Amino acid sequence: MIKGSKICGISDLETLKFIINHPCPPQFIGFICNYKKSSRYVEIEKLNELLSLDKKKSNLVAVLVKPDEDILEKIKHLPFDYYQIYDSTPKEIKEIKQKYKKKIITALAINDEADVQKYHSFSEMTDIFLFDSKGYEKSMAFDHKLIQKVKINKPLMIAGNVQINDNLENYKKIADIIDISGGLETSGVKDKSKIDIFLNKVEQVYSET
Questions:
Q1: How far apart are CA 82 and CA 19, in angstroms?
Q2: What count of other Cβ atoms lies within 10 Å of the Cβ of residue 189?
Q3: Residues paired with residue 167 on neighbouring β-strands, in sequence order
Q4: Which of 18, 68, 174, 199 sits 20 to 30 Å CA-CA off 205?
Q5: Beta bridge partners of 186
Q6: Are 79 and 61 in contact (CB under 8 A)?
């Protein structure tokens, strides 16, 4: 059942204000903190500015790819509610959670069934599971049918080339939270009209359940 949404890759103040103040704000807002290959990467100085806003009803998420101590120390003062972590071992994530006292979104990049089954190793330290494509900075899809039979007693977030014209009803049986980034962009920039359409569609699907 779709309970909420996450808009990822926010990098400018104007878009962030629009999202936070939307009548149907997303449950999560993600910021790319250390993956410099992404066009949505945000420098620490800019993060300080963005995260000084009142987040209101949304949770703030630091998106981290195999984070080292350097980046973790640089962002530890910022008001992130969750760390979304790619490419780290269960042991590494457990240590991060214990040291920095953050809730964890474990992000698993999916290509086949074997990738899906990796979630078992992360259950202890994970608050939310994100099943994503292997695209990282690119908007790539994966076969969402691979996770239809997954039974996890944690919220399940789905990403991987989600588009605003998708029938969100199709995600109701496989995910709790829809994560979208590139699908809300026009020429690589977040588009407020697309954000508005998406957030209203999520609210409609949630209201119907």
A1: 18
A2: 12
A3: none
A4: 18
A5: 189
A6: no
Q: Which residues contact 92 (CB under 8 A, 6 or more apart)?
A: none
Report which of 67, 85, 72, 80 is spatially closest to residue 10, judged by C-alpha positions: 80
In b/e form, how buried is each residue of 99-117, taking b as 16+ CB within 10 angstroms? Answer: ebebebbbbbbbeeeebbe
- Give me the amino acid identity at 203: E
- pTM (2 decimals)? 0.94
**């202890």: which residue's tokens?**
124
The boundaries of the domain holding residue 52 are: 4-208
> What type of residue is 88?
S
- Looking at the 3D structure of the chain, how many domains does it have? 1
Tokens 């963005």 appear where? Answer: 50
CATH number, domain with residue 47? 3.20.20.70
Task: Judge contact between 185 and 34, C-beta under 8 A.
Answer: no
Is the alpha carbon torsion for 182, 186, 187, 190 positive or negative?
negative
Give the per-residue pLDDT at 137: 54
- CA 100/CA 83 separation, integer angstroms: 10
The per-residue pLDDT for range 144-190, each reduced to its tens digit, is 888 887 888 899 999 987 888 888 888 888 899 999 999 999 999 99
pLDDT for the residue numbered 140: 65
User: What are the mean pLDDT values of the chain's consecutive 10-residue runs (209 residues total)?
Assistant: 91 98 97 94 97 96 97 97 97 97 96 91 96 70 82 90 84 89 94 96 82
